[in-house]
Amino acid sequence: MDEFAGGVRRVTTPLPMRPGHVHSYLLPGDDGWTLVDTGIGAPDARERWAAELAELDGPVTAILVTHFHPDHVGAAADLAELTGAPVYQDELDLQQCRLVWGSDDWPERLTDWFQRHGVPGDVTDELIGQGTYYRPFIRYQDTAAPIRPGDDLRGWTVVAAPGHADGQLCLLRDGVLVAADHLLDPITPTVGLWPESRPDPLGDYLTALQQTIELAPTRAFPGHGELIENPVARAHALIAHHAERLDVTEAALGEQPQSGYAVSFPLSGADLKPGARRFAVAETLSHLERLVLEGRARRHEDSGSVSYTAAQ
Ligand SMILES: [Zn+2]
Known about the structure:
Blueprint: E1 2-3, E2 9-14, E3 21-27, E4 33-36, H1 45-54, E5 60-64, H2 70-73, H3 76-83, E6 87-89, H4 91-102, H5 106-116, H6 121-134, E7 145-146, E8 152-153, E9 156-160, E10 169-173, E11 176-180, H7 201-215, E12 219-222, H8 231-252, H9 260-268, H10 274-293, E13 297-302, E14 305-310
Parallel strand pairs: 4-5, 5-6, 6-7, 11-12
Antiparallel strand pairs: 1-2, 2-3, 3-4, 8-9, 9-10, 10-11, 13-14
The chain binds zinc ion.
C-alpha cells in the first residue's frame, strides 16, 4: 500500500492482461475510508484484500465502482462482504455490467455486432470461449446503490466522465481528481463503440476532457500508471491525440464503402492479434461515428452490414 499527500492510499492489484496492474484508492474521511475500485476478482482477491484492509486504522464505510470493466468491478462483491460497506455505481454502468457479465447471450450478441462491422470469423470465434473465461473473475455487486454526478460521497464530489465507459465516474475534492480510467498517462484510455453503448462515446469523451480542463484539478490519481501531476495538460494532450486520430480516420475514407474492420487497418496497423484487433475496431468505430456527426463521413447500413464513405 502506497501513501500520498492528503492521506490518499493506493493498492495495486496485478492483472493477467495488459497493462499488467490496476490501482484502487482509499480516501480518508471522518467516518472511515472510501474505497475506489476493487481490482479483478482473481481467486486470491479476498485474501489479498483482507491483508490490505488489516493495515488500515479504521473501517471502509463506502465503496465506489468507477466503471464496470473487469479490473475495476471484479472484486466488488468480495469487498462488500469483507467490509459490510455499501457499493455505489452509476445506474447505466450497473445496467451495462449486468448485460456484459450477467447475461448468457452477451458473447453471441457481441459476435453478431462485430460481424455487422465486417470482422471475419477467425477474429470473433474466440469471443464465445472468452465470455466464459472472464466470468469467474467478475463478482460485481448486483445490489449496488445508484450514485449520480454532483452527489457527495464522504466529502468528495461525484463527476461524470463518460467516454472510456459510458458510466465512468470520478471523484473530486480540493483539486484532487480520482480519475480512474478517464485520465491515464502515458497510456491513452481506450474509447470504443460497443453494442448497447451510448451512440457517440468519442464525443462524450472530448466533452468530458473539456470539463476536466475547466475543473482544473492539480493532481489526478489514475486507474493505471503513475500519479498525474498536471491533469489539465494531460487532458489537452488527449484532445489533441483524438483530433489527429480523427484526421487519420477521415483520410482513410473514400468513395468505396469500407467496414469499421477495414478502416481499423490504416488506423491501428495490420499486425494485431484477434483480441487487440477487436479493440481496434471498437476504437475505429467511435472515431467513424464522431466523423459522421461532424459531417466528415457517411454511414451506410444494408442487409445487416455497416460501412462508411467519405463525406463528399
Ligand atoms: Zn476500463
